[in-house]
Automatic annotation (TrEMBL):
Residues 1-25 are annotated as: Disordered. Keywords: Cell membrane, Membrane, Transmembrane, Transmembrane helix, Transport. PANTHER family: ALKANE SULFONATE ABC TRANSPORTER-RELATED, MEMBRANE SUBUNIT, TRANSPORT SYSTEM INTEGRAL MEMBRANE PROTEIN. CDD domains: TM_PBP2 (cd06261). It is a multi-pass membrane protein. The chain crosses the membrane at residues 54-75, 116-135, 147-167, 173-194, 215-232, 272-295. It comes from the Bacteria. It comes from Streptomyces violaceus (Streptomyces venezuelae). This is ABC transporter permease. It holds the Pfam family BPD_transp_1.
Length: 312
């Protein structure tokens, strides 16, 4: 029939239009793969790449800081609060400069950071096997799993009076508060990461001989690493917050002079520029640890699992 022949010839012409270079038996898969790769890759020159990184990573935080300082200065100039209650950014900067010239800033920051790092490492050493034990033994998880979640939600400052009574005004009391605040976060993060491991990974590891501790080391922990890393970040945040609460309340000259004691001294002297300057230092330390330690580690973990594209 002429009409049927015409329709078949039109379909063949359309097929040749869609796939002009394809062989008659099927599609050229090599060419299609090359085209997809070309779509995903975008050529960048060195200058354009540097400019893009500056615009994407440096400019937004700088603009946010400028905006916060501008709003702060406007509120200060509006006279909502007296100067001794709400000083401006200039007065806080002068307080920072004064502390720097007194030679106490680096020592104060070093004291608190060393305490926080040591307490966090101890929390990781305790929380990791605890999380593995809770995840592995179901009755234990049923018994103490809700308790770990409750301890994680408990404010760290609530432990300070008990720690002072137990251990006195010593560094042991401070480390006890840090551990009680950080260990539940590390353990819960590991348990959450383990729960997200596909059972197929565990069965495949067992078929290859990875059982017991070998299975945990080579199968479970690598697969649960993204969730575990999130727990570590949260554990550091709890460690730092717990440390500041402990230093603020349980400070004494014999224990050294940290950021918490510096904040308390500013409160006692009613020196609001010093109080706000100390708060900024505490905030800067927390942000710096996240940017210099956890953010690169998180990018590396995500990139090795194909969850984050490598920068061109």
């Amino acid at each position: 029939m002429p009409g049927a022949d015409t329709r078949r010839s039109r379909k063949a012409a359309d097929a040749r239009t869609v796939l002009p270079d394809a062989p008659r038996d099927g599609v050229d898969l090599d060419g299609l793969s090359t085209g997809l790769d070309a779509l995903q890759s975008t050529p960048h020159k060195g200058g354009a790449r540097l400019g893009g990184l500056l615009l994407a990573r440096v400019l937004p935080p700088v603009m946010a800081i400028v905006l916060i300082l501008a709003v702060w200065e406007l509120v200060h100039l509006s006279g909502v609060k007296p100067d001794y209650v709400l000083p401006g950014p200039g007065a806080v900067w002068d307080a920072l400069v004064e502390q720097w010239y007194l030679g106490t800033t680096l020592g104060v920051i070093g004291q608190s950071v060393s305490r926080g790092a040591l307490g966090f490492l101890a929390a990781v050493a305790i929380g990791t096997p605890l999380g593995l034990f809770v995840w592995r033994v179901r009755p234990v998880r049923t018994a103490i799993g809700p308790m770990l979640t409750g301890l994680q939600s408990l404010p760290s400052v609530a432990w300070v009076p008990a720690a002072v009574i137990w251990f006195g005004l010593t560094d042991t009391a401070i480390y006890a508060v840090v551990l009680l605040g950080a260990v539940p976060s590390v353990a819960n993060g590991l348990v959450a990461g383990m729960d997200q491991v596909p059972p197929l990974f565990v069965r495949a590891g067992r078929s290859l001989g990875a059982r017991g501790l070998r299975g945990v080391r080579h199968i479970l922990l690598p697969a649960a690493l993204p969730g575990y890393l999130a727990g570590l970040k949260q554990g550091w945040a709890f460690s730092w917050r717990s440390l500041m609460a402990a230093e603020l309340i349980a400070g004494s000259p014999e224990m050294g002079y940290g950021l918490g004691q510096m904040l308390e001294n500013g409160r006692v002297a009613q020196d609001m520029p010093l109080v706000l300057a100390t708060i900024l230092l505490i905030l800067c330390v927390g942000i710096s640890v996240d940017l210099l330690v956890f953010a690169p580690l998180e990018r590396y973990v995500l990139r090795t699992r194909g969850l984050l594209e490598r920068a061109p």
